[in-house]
């Protein structure tokens, strides 16, 4: 066994793949509802992803947080006076909310030890949603702990937090109405963590209304909170539903009970948010790995397309002047925040990220239906090529025609890249997403195998130089695939994986325990055969390919001990493997650390599967 120590190699001139990671990046700016000139965004400008305040009137941008392992979870109070940010320990996702004044502290006024806890009466927990009242005097805080399950607390001013909701199953804060009189909650009291129900309560905890699409039927249908109408006294709640087999919006008046089904004539999943005056909805429509934007007008019922280039919109927001700001990218073009009013909204100084090659769409017949895959290959090359199957996490996620520095790095080094939207992926209908239940991991690998067969028979991929890699759920599928398909893969690279499913279940955060019970139909004690069949540890002795694993020692999602169990089994039989452990959680927010990890993966790959010349 070889223990990786850190950076390997080095170039006098920075390569393109490294530039993509180092180039300054910004998120879509959030803005204060009653002070829209005040915004909050995330940037890696200092080499670590942190929160920044932006006064659009003066143009001033100021870093708000400064922590060794970075900060990305934050929100503005509606009046723009305060920035709430979540303070955990080195990426373990367990912590407290803190408050920072948007304008910063006057000289000498900064509290000793940094920003004070926003709600001193609440102990550390995993976050489960946050909603803040208009003047900052009311806050609704969702929490999750292994001991208490899910709880929701209401806090008024400097008063003590009052618990208004508690349940063992997963739940969280959805939204707070503009006048502060209604709280929307997403919950899974029925025990299905993949399909939430909704409850609306008042700040005193009294129940107003329930909406549950899992009741009284054979189908498993989910609901999600998209937001209360941004109008005083308006009791309409924008809700996402799956009643026609995909995500669509509807409007639910939580007091009268009236439901307005919008029935938008769009083929893919549809999400939405209110325009600031409540007269229309901004629609983001995702279909077959790409997305676009539309405007739905309530008065006329008209649905109007908002022009964007072919690619993916990964976030969008409607501004008070009617313009829309959106974060767009494609596989070939790096992300940029643009406005329909014209131009780039945020253009960070510094180097520009180099582009990459576009994706090609491939559809393959699989055991559960047509599988969509995205393919990239080095320019000017022809097959058969060494090919990296880069598997997305989630599993309820999907690869899209959007910019990704990781796959671009593989391409730069002479490898074709195939990304598979296996059963379990979002964006292809509810049945596709829900299909992996009970045979978890094995279903996804059947689809990956079908695409692998296409890649070989089409002449794209060299069957002797096939690489399986991924992070999180993709890392899990990598280890499971190496054990269940040992003759198919020349090498495996797994980042923050599930490796020993039983130990992972007992050690992971409570919300993920609930998800695993839903996916597998119970706990390891209740359905041991299913956990055994879906655990990479079960098949570790069959693994033939060299394995590289990276893991965060503070990871609450794929905890370190279950990785150590798997590694110990590899070491026991002297199977070729390398391990890199880093001091963070489920991934790193430090640019240097990200680059180190990619460099180590590239080095491992090139030593075991040489790239195309």
Describe this structure in words.
This protein has 613 residues and is of the alpha+beta class. It contains ten helices and 36 strands. Helix 1 packs antiparallel against helix 2 (405-412). The protein starts with a strand and ends in a 5-residue tail after the last helix. Mean pLDDT is 94; it is low at 1-12.
Write the layout of secondary structure elements.
Blueprint: E1 2-3, H1 16-22, E2 30-32, E3 35-43, E4 50-55, E5 61-63, E6 74-76, E7 82-88, E8 95-101, E9 126-132, E10 138-145, E11 149-156, E12 162-167, E13 171-176, E14 183-187, E15 197-201, E16 207-211, E17 223-228, E18 236-241, E19 248-253, E20 259-261, E21 269-274, E22 280-287, E23 290-297, E24 303-306, E25 312-318, E26 324-329, E27 336-339, E28 344-346, E29 360-366, E30 369-376, E31 385-391, H2 405-412, E32 416-421, H3 430-434, H4 442-457, E33 461-471, H5 473-484, E34 491-495, H6 501-507, H7 510-520, H8 528-534, E35 547-552, H9 560-572, E36 577-582, H10 591-608
Helix pairs in contact: 1-2
